[in-house]
Design goal:
Layout (H helix, E strand, L loop, with lengths): L2 H23 L5 H22 L11 H27 L2 H9 L1 H12 L6 H18 L2
Helix pairs in contact: 2-3, 4-6
Length: 140
């Protein structure tokens, strides 16, 4: 199995736990404060990892366009997390997570348009099932 698939499976596993841990952690905490604690933890761990592995030398390779895109990605991540944590604080974790994961459909559409990635019947069926599954879960 290719390494990227193992990384994706690990990401899926930890992302599942993330939602549950966040829901418990937000019980008596403001959603924005909870997100601040989470983000500070992420910043600390990533900083230690980058410094410990000597990956700071790669900063010379970043172009201004790449830097701008990474900053934009950070902004969209921040907005996503703010709304996710606010939804998680008040909503059902199963519903909030299902709606959030439907972002896969948006990612797929953008990957077809921007990266010209192949649009196969398998991918379209999978995306459709994800979207339909989300609708089934949240439809009143």
């Amino acid at each position: 199995m290719e390494t990227w698939i193992l990384y994706a499976i690990a990401s899926m596993f930890f992302a599942g736990f993330t939602s549950i841990l966040a829901k418990y952690g937000l019980q008596n905490v403001n959603a924005d404060l909870g997100l601040g604690i989470r983000t500070t933890t992420i910043f600390f761990i990533i900083t230690v990892f980058v410094l410990a592995t000597g990956k700071t030398k790669d900063i010379e390779l970043i172009t201004s366009k790449q830097l701008l895109l990474l900053i934009a990605s950070g902004i969209t991540t921040t907005l996503s997390w703010i709304f996710y944590y606010r939804a998680m604080k008040d909503g059902l974790v199963s519903y909030v997570a299902a709606i959030d994961k439907a972002s896969i459909v948006i990612t797929l559409v953008l990957s077809f348009i921007l990266f010209k990635e192949p649009m196969s019947v398998k991918v379209i069926c999978g995306a459709s099932l994800i979207f339909i599954g989300m609708m089934v879960l949240v439809w009143k």
